[in-house]
């Protein structure tokens, strides 16, 4: 009786461990595929900007509803997504980086930092103002460097 309980426990343990390993392998493989697709030269920046556009819409909704927690999440996501990832991808895809691009990156980072501070203070008036400044920084960059994009960006659903 004792031996059969031990054998059953070992069998269950090995089944559970093997199923966990399979799940992790699939997950890590999916992550590798996603990372590869994100950094492919043909669509890396386009994919990153599409993700940033979705986050920007979510931020717009959070600002509209004075959702301070949502604003905190989406401003950080955008800072990482556009401020670092998109800028890096643009630099990878374009050999010659004009000074104007660097200036516009700095304006974006300044605008998002100010928006973050307004959100932390729960200052609805300043938050709306800073969000509008953030949108203007996006529009300026699109005007100069993304001729295919809409000139006037719309972040409403």
Can you lay out the helices and strands and say which pair or pack?
Elements: H1 2-38, H2 44-64, H3 68-93, H4 99-121, H5 124-145
Structural class by sheet pairing and helices: mainly alpha
Radius of gyration: 22 Å
Give unreliable regions as ranges: 21-28, 30-42
Strand content is under 5%
Order of helices and strands: HHHHH
- What characterizes the major β-sheet? none
CATH class descriptor name of the largest domain: Mainly Alpha
CATH level-4 homologous superfamily of the largest domain? Cytochrome c/b562
Oligomer: single chain
Q: What is the terminal separation in angstroms?
A: 64 Å
CATH architecture of the largest domain: Up-down Bundle
In DSSP terms, counting alpha (H) and pi (I) runs of 4 or more, how many helices?
5
Describe this structure in words.
- The chain is an all-alpha fold and 157 residues long.
- The protein starts with a helix and ends in a 12-residue tail after the last helix.
- About 13% of the residues have low confidence.
